[in-house]
Amino acid sequence: TQHVHNCGPQTFLISRKGGTLLTINNFVYRSNLKFYGKSNDILYWECVQNRSMKCRSRLKTIGDDLYVTNDVHNHMGDTKRIEAAKIAGMLIHKKLSSLTVADRVHGWNRAESSGSDPLAKV
């Protein structure tokens, strides 16, 4: 397991359905944003290609700490999807600890993701 302590703001992608997806090293991860642990700050993430390609890459976040539990992907990165989201203004930088259950269903305010620099929001 690789551990990144206090990894700071991460890049999130707003999915077509308005959900929150985490991007790490040109790969996209989903979480049901169901929080676990005594402090209610543990999230589990799986590669979005888990269902279609049976990719087993996994992450775990505890507050602002990132734990890579499996970094092996059986497919190429999601560079095109991430670039398309950037062009469409559907990427945002946000600290892991600022995620809420509301991000699962509603994504972010359009006001947060619009404007001259959608990546500037923390």
TrEMBL record:
Pfam families, sorted: FLYWCH
Record keywords: Metal-binding, Zinc, Zinc-finger
Alphabetized InterPro entries for the sequence: Znf_FLYWCH
Gene3D superfamilies noted in UniProt: 2.20.25.240
Residue ranges occupied by any FLYWCH-type domain in the UniProt entry: 12-75
MF annotations from Gene Ontology: zinc ion binding
Designated name of the protein: FLYWCH-type domain-containing protein
